[in-house]
Amino acid sequence: MRSLSKLMLLAVVLVLTACKASLGQPLQWYKGNLHTHSYWSDGDEFPEMIMDWYKSKGYQFLALSDHNILAKDEKWITVAKSKMYEDDFAKYLSKYGEKWVVHKNDTGRIQVKLKTYSEYKPLFEDKNFLIIQSEEITDRYGDKMIHMNATNIQQLIVPQGGQSVTDVMQRNIDQVIKQRAESGTPMIPHINHPNFFFSVSTQDIIDLHGERFFEVYNGHPLVNNYGDSLHPGTEQMWDNINIAYLKKNQPLLYGLATDDSHNYHQFGSAYSNAGRGWIMVRSSELQTNALITALEQGDFYASTGVVLDHYSVVNNAIHIKVKSEPGVQYTIEFIGLKTGQQKTQLISDVRGTEATFQLTKGIAFVRARVTSDKQKPNPFREGDVEMAWTQPISYRK
Question: Which own/partner pairs from 293-296 qualify as long-range (CB within 8 Å, at least 24 positions apart)?
């Protein structure tokens, strides 16, 4: 009963947050990444250096989502005995100083005490930059690697295990939902890189309940965004899952783009670098509750470089205008499921920077994909161009 009361209170908070926007508080687009790693798990950089990089590049929010850990307790790391990492430590020490950086030398090896979330958060947060506490719940079933992010988590969730891939995911999702209800704090789970070693199939996700987000794009070199001859790419998976969700009367699944950054000193398609994928969230304010409200309403798009100057849905009419760059060509495609069909298809496309699509009763859902001809710097795969994806929507009476 107590959990139910807290869940009801949380629902009221989110409704009030949404109402603030509807009452005239201006909406803005905020850029952020929800999947980032540091020395707290298997990243190769100090949290402060990572925060500084993202903030200096114009991001407005960031989640450090290290594996099965929150940056709360005491943790020391030993700097790798290589010039690259020793030089990086020297830069870190020079930037933040002896009073901030707690370190020691033990038999010729540099050991550093990592700063916790509560320590580094005040150093960077201001009206233009928000840090969100997160965890990558890192689980498995047999040889299947099952990773799920919990955004704005308050307490560590230990991987739950299970009797199948779906069962493992469901148990971990349930723990996030439970913590959200009990704490009264908005938080969301999302499925990470389903094609990482092809561990999570379309059917595995179809059988879930309570999951609203998955990564349609992830910047890690091993995640197989495009599938292979035996496995669909994540974009095709996305559509197939939503076809199934419609049949079960479940809310549509939304697609995220993330960095999954681990490597901050070596660059190229063999490394998991920062700056490859992000989301643009339209929110009434740069505040965690407001961002989560917008995410759950689907008021965001995923991007690897394309920026939208305008996006709206009014009276079932979708209007998109790209913030164009000189000399760059764009194609806006509307991909959807026609009523009675079993597969999505390209319904309309416009070569240019602006397009409008009228959604009718004959279309079960539709989403937009914007593709440029601009080569992406430091791409996930050589030859990739900058893109963006809006969220699927259904006809509204």
Answer: 293/14, 293/17, 293/18, 293/186, 295/188, 295/213, 295/254, 296/14, 296/188, 296/212
